[in-house]
Amino acid sequence: MTRVTGATDAPRDGREVQRRERETAVDDTVKRILYVQTSGMEAPERSATVFFLATAAAAIDIEVGIYFTQHGPTLLQRGAPEALHIKHGGAPLSHFMDQARDLGVRFYVCQPSLDLNELKLADLIEGVEMIGGAAFNNMALEADRVICF
């Protein structure tokens, strides 16, 4: 565990030290990966890998999020995952997205990228969380790894 403190929070006795350590402890045992998906419907061959890897990571108890930016949000548009097949005759992208979400992978979307692709949050599949740059940067700092596609 890592203790997070400020310069002015000097404890007065041993019980106070223990109480503050419990309150400010960060769980270093939880592993986190943040994937960044920049490609979307314009490059279907680049759309599935992030879901395969995120699902595999979640299956071994890693906390996983996928941040969709640039053209990535087009993969989240209602109807798009069902229509997109990476391989002719293969499963639709929605199949791989559902596997990831069933294991707890969280989907985040970049607000300016919605504007770039002329989309609104209401145009996207259920369960997508919209975050801004500050939230993304905090998530990236907290992650053990950030992997971009």
What distinguishing features does this structure have?
5-stranded parallel beta sheet; 19% strand; globular; Hypothetical Protein Ychn, Chain: A; two-stranded antiparallel sheet; disordered N terminus; alpha/beta; 149 residues
Structural features, described:
With 149 residues, the chain is α/β, with parallel strands linked by helices. The chain has a single domain, classed as DsrEFH-like (Hypothetical Protein Ychn, Chain: A, 3-Layer(aba) Sandwich), CATH 3.40.1260.10. It has 6 helices and 7 strands, in the order E-H-E-E-H-E-H-H-E-H-E-H-E. Strand 3, helix 2 (49-59) and strand 4 (63-68) form a beta-alpha-beta unit. Helix 2 (49-59) packs parallel to helix 4 (93-102).
- C-alpha end-to-end distance: 31 Å
Give the C-level CATH assignment: Alpha Beta
Tally of alpha and pi helices: 6
Number of strands: 7
Structural class: alpha/beta
Q: What is the CATH homologous superfamily assignment?
A: DsrEFH-like
Major sheet: arrangement of strands:
6-5-4-3-7
Proportion of β residues?
A: 15-25%
Instruction: Report Rg.
Output: 19 Å
What CATH calls the topology is Hypothetical Protein Ychn, Chain: A
Major sheet summary line: 5 strands, parallel
Catalogue the unreliable spans. 1-11, 22-26
User: What pattern of helices and strands is seen along the backbone?
Assistant: EHEEHEHHEHEHE
Percent in helix: 25-40%
The second-level CATH architecture is 3-Layer(aba) Sandwich
Apparent shape: globular
Number of domains: 1
Mean pLDDT: 88
